[in-house]
Amino acid sequence: MSNEPESNLLINRTNHYLLKHLATIFIRLELNFNSDLKNVTKLALPTDCLTSYSQRFLFKTVASHLEFEILNLFESSIISFVSAKSAFYHLENILSDSLCNFVQFYLPNKSLSFSKPDFSADFSICDLTIWTHILNYFIKGDSQYFYCQKSVKLSCDLLEDQILAILNHFVIQISNIIIKFLLYHDERLFIRNLFYIVCDVSFLSSRYLMNLKNNLLLFRAVNFYIYDPKLIYENKYSLLYINSNTICSKKIYSDRHRELTILSKPQLLVVILLELQDLFFPKIKNLVYLLGKSIIYIFSYFVGTALKILLNKFPI
User: In 3D, which of 174, 145, 180, 160 has the Cα closest to residue 69?
Assistant: First the structure.
């Protein structure tokens, strides 16, 4: 019994430290979205069509709902572990609540009449795995949990910065999923009215919005059949991050072997072609290199011999 007060004190101190840690991350997260962000990736993002104010408001709305979900989990004494299924449920909550808030902010008298959207196709297994690890880290408050997982490699010294980068990625990703969802439902009058309010001047024309939709559909197909299998094969994960008020993209290591088993036949064909490229390309490269050297040697030999013959026949 004498150890019980000491253990309670230790738990309180741990929780107090984790709350301060959470507060620091959340403050930094909100500060990242206080400024206008320019997309400098090679990808067309749905949020590119928004005005600076609308984009900033959407990012901040998503960030606040993300923080709310994490804090609810942290304060819950019942939940000690989050499964991938539960993690996706929390992502859906953030998405649907942020979507409602964003629309109702600009159209306060309009209630959304959507059937419950299915966002499962917008997240990869790797997305869900990383998001699950993030939630479990905040519940357990144990950094060793993060170091033991194999999905992404994290540094002890840069753990807070890396968690912040992952949260930034999810805020940007969720915001783009929301705008993409609205773009695909723009046949509804109230959504068209919404876009007239939130869109940048260059996208106010229906033609420009249609071009953006077509580009997004094309990229989605290319991403699904080419880029995603390539990233899975190479064990890489595409992370959107913020750098000097710009949205950038980079590839980080992630163990994605599990995803190979659920690839479609066209995606598997891309993986097989990549395997063949890795198998034969170095050999072809070496062969071309040797042929090139041989041709240069033969050419230089004949040229040198011809010059010698000419010089012997016609001495200077």
Answer: 174
